[in-house]
Specification:
This protein is an alpha/beta fold. Helix content is 43%, strand content 19%. The chain contains twelve helices and ten strands.
Length: 331
Amino acid sequence: MQRRQLLKAAAAPLVLAGLPAVVKAQGNWPAAKNITYMVPFATGGTTDTLGRLIAQQLGPALGTTVIVENRGGAGGSVGSELAARAQPDGYTLLGGTISSHAINISLYPKLGYDPVKSFTPITLIGTNPLVLVVAANSPYKSLQDVLEAAKKRQGGLSSASAGAGTSQHLALEMLGWKSGVKFTHVPYKGSGPAIQDVMGGQVDMMFDTTVVAAPHIQSGKLRALAVTSKQRLEALKDVPTVAESGVSSLANFEVTSWQALFAPSGTPDAIVQKLHQEVAKIIATPDMKARLKTMGMEPSTLSPAQIAEFQKTEVAKWAAVIKEAKVKVDS
């Protein structure tokens, strides 16, 4: 018996030596090293807001520091490509969205990553509709006003977005396609700078997530005209849905944005599961649930496997919309 134990003890280092370095690192992950939470948009947007809320609590939960890094551009594609090329060791996370991980693959002809194959889903943070907003001093008081004004102006009204391929952009394209009215799309590198220009009157309007728009609506800086959900939102009870506009072609109009957390493909399952558990705990806290609800966001409880299936469905859905609406981008 003693000889057998000695042989096992002697063999153990040899077995460990043959394991890949990334597997050996799992035991002490995250060992005295910061984790980068990459946000593929500018500061001030939904992905950035949620990333910072989660990072503040995820760091202490893991015994390390989670640093939010903003890498905006091309509807989330620039930062997503950088994250896809990072080492799959648990030290790089990405705040993925409906644009970066469902829409862009059908919109950008030379995307530098595959939204499904290049990443491993960790958590679906939540879903939320968009709200069409104009500046508080805008002459437009309803979606009908917007449609009528756009018909009369060469090129239509201008509408900002967080970038080409974002849910804000696709909501505008759907509105134009279904209503037969033209608009001029004005892409930015994130919701933060885009919504500032709407408030300042440089751009006529914008579809944005309730996470970003709600505080400005509540402060009186923006006027909400319509929400893209099937039903009115509890947080914006007085704002009608797009379907309630009275335009028959918009009767089934619905756009639901979503936010998720991903890691580069190949990240060890033990790390993925640990991250899923910890982020799920954060989302489930009464304070976080209340904050998400106030923002008009519905928290998610999907598992990584369920998120993967949900994502594939979303990719197919938006591919069909982009084809039907003939949506194009310059690059």
